[in-house]
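This entry is listed below:
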Amino acid sequence: MLIKLLTGLFAKWEMIYSTHDFDDYSAMKGRLENNSIPYKMKTVSPGVGKGEAASYQLFVSKALMKKANEAIHYKDS
C-alpha cells in the first residue's frame, strides 16, 4: 500500500495514448485495466463552438511504459 502511494506521488507520467474517439479511448483504458496497469486520464476540450472534438488521453508511469505499450498495441491473431 505504501509503495502504491509513493509511486502515485513521485512517478513520472507519460502519455501512452490519445484519441478523439471515445470508443477507442474506452477500449484502450480497458486493456490497461485488464493488465492491472495503473493509469491517469485527461480529457482536453477545445471549448464550445470551436467545432473540434474533445481529445481523450491516457498516461502511465515511465516505469510501466513497456508493459502498457504491449497491452495497448497487442492485437489478437
Q: What stands out?
A: The chain has a mean pLDDT of 84. Strands lie at 13-19, 40-44, 55-61. The helical segments are 2-10, 22-34, 65-73.
